[in-house]
Predict the structure.
Amino acid sequence: MKFFSYTLTPMLLLAVLVSCQNKKASPQTQEEEITFNEAEYLAKGKSIAMASFGALSGQLQAALREGGVPNAIAYCQLAAYPLLDSLAKEHNASIRRTSMQVRNPLNTPSPQEKMVLEQYEEGAKAGEALSPIVQAVDAGTIAFYAPIKVNAFCLQCQGKPGDTLKEEDYAVIKERYPEDLAIGYQDGDLCGMWSIRFSRAH
């Protein structure tokens, strides 16, 4: 289960203030710069990320109430991807979560996503405010990224084993995800990002 709690709201309120540093980190996709309406895609990405977060977090909290962490893990493994796929169709975009410490190998970052995650990690270490980023992937695709942070709620599944993450719950996680890396977090840590892509209208 890739189980996050998201602090998107303060980050997304800063969307219009995406820094020059963020823009500078955008990979060169063509010899000529690809122009697009940045504010438009920031607004779209923000809306989709918030809707996705709301849908996932509501279902996960219900699963936790009904059967604790094992039930929430089962929900994530079976239902989280179909839910995001449904939202992706509704918004005509691809939606995924990724991290440098994945639980599900399907969430492994692409080379471009890894570059953005590394940038967010550097900013977090420096104590910087992390803002959403919009980049042109190619002439026909625009990508939106937004940081995801841990809070006390998700430490039940992503905290320190034997401390904030119960050993018996961690055993269930390891059974379902033998290569799990999504543990050891503390409240407020950066744990990944939203990665949303749009087919650009010409």
Q: What stands out?
A: The radius of gyration is 17 Å. Residues 59 and 176 are 19 Å apart (CA to CA).
